[in-house]
Amino acid sequence: MCPFAQRVAWSLLEADAEHHVELIDLKNKPTWIKSNSFIFCHIHSSPTHKKHKRSLNNITVKKMSYPYSKSLMTFYNTKMCPFAQRVAWSLLEADAEHHVELIDLKNKPTWIKSVHPEGKVPALRLTDGNILIESIPIARYIADKYPESKLSPADAFDKYKVNLFIDNFGSRIITLAFQLLKSPNQEEKSANLDKVVEMLRDINKTLLESSEAGPYLLGETLTLAEINTITFIDRLKVIFNLLEIDFDSFKDLDRFYQWVDASMSRPTFKKTIAPYEEVSSFHAQFIPK
Ligand SMILES: N[C@@H](CCC(=O)N[C@@H](CS)C(=O)NCC(=O)O)C(=O)O
């Protein structure tokens, strides 16, 4: 009955993977259902897994000419955007030669919809004319295209851990960070802060379970797990500063702090960050007056 489980059932059959099935009656769950000992069980279903609107059905989009490099991939970027930053960081980690077109989102070029149907960044144009959108799939594309970057682990279980980490935390971080930023009063601010700290503890626990020594999720190698979450942790730090909350003051988050420090001190990450003042004043406008 479960369409999510059906994805797994179908994959197993397509892969001709030998397996044993335990059928679960969800109306009458077995007593042992919560006792699985896998370290990487799903922690939280991400609240912003909204269905991505596909606005192109039945609409013919006339393509305007737009700037791109003939010989290199063209990355349409806005430095202030944490989604685009995932792509900027991946490109640098993969040492992938590319050309950048900077987009001013407050004053979008007329051709923007020829590059992205919703007029957004990031987008990545390949030299064959295909254009990729959506930061996570673009980062995955870069990781697959440049396997020597090791951004996507070769081992299937490691890959699963990276993907689950992104599923669990990729959008939860920014959702909770903005809830906190927009808290209308002290009481809600404190409740929202509790939710953020609970999430940081989940991250800390996941990191520890995956690799005690760290510093990254998979130990010594930076992967898409960091690329797709840290840019939002950076925004969370800005929000903490604006709300005068000390980011480094929470107990029992040592592994989390180690992870953040290692990721953010990489020269590749530093090259992708927008000026602090700009990021801070952008977020400040969301604080209720
Ligand atoms: N889900 C998209 C989100 C991209 C996104 O929201 N980009 C923002 C900037 S951070 C944007 O281009 N906004 C312009 C607009 O909405 O008009 C992704 O992961 O790439």
Protein described:
- Pfam families: GST_C_5, GST_N_2.
- One of its GO terms (cellular component) is cytoplasm.
- Residues 71-150 form the GST N-terminal domain.
- This protein starts with a helix and ends in a 5-residue tail after the last helix.
- It has helices at residues 3-14, 82-93, 112-115, 135-145, 156-169, 172-181, 186-210, 224-242, 254-264, 267-272, 276-284, and strands at 73-77, 98-102, 123-125, 131-133.
- Strand 1 (73-77), helix 2 and strand 2 form a beta-alpha-beta unit.
- The protein is built from 11 helices and 4 strands; from the N terminus they run αβαβαββαααααααα.
- Mean pLDDT is 92; it is low at 37-57.
- The chain has 2 domains: 73-148, Glutaredoxin (3-Layer(aba) Sandwich), CATH 3.40.30.10; 153-284, Glutathione S-transferase Yfyf (Class Pi), Chain A, domain 2 (Up-down Bundle).
- With 289 residues, it is mainly alpha-helical.
- The structure holds glutathione.
- The site of glutathione has 9 residues, from loops.
Secondary structure elements and their pairing?
Elements: H1 3-14, E1 73-77, H2 82-93, E2 98-102, H3 112-115, E3 123-125, E4 131-133, H4 135-145, H5 156-169, H6 172-181, H7 186-210, H8 224-242, H9 254-264, H10 267-272, H11 276-284
Parallel strand pairs: 1-2
Antiparallel strand pairs: 1-3, 3-4
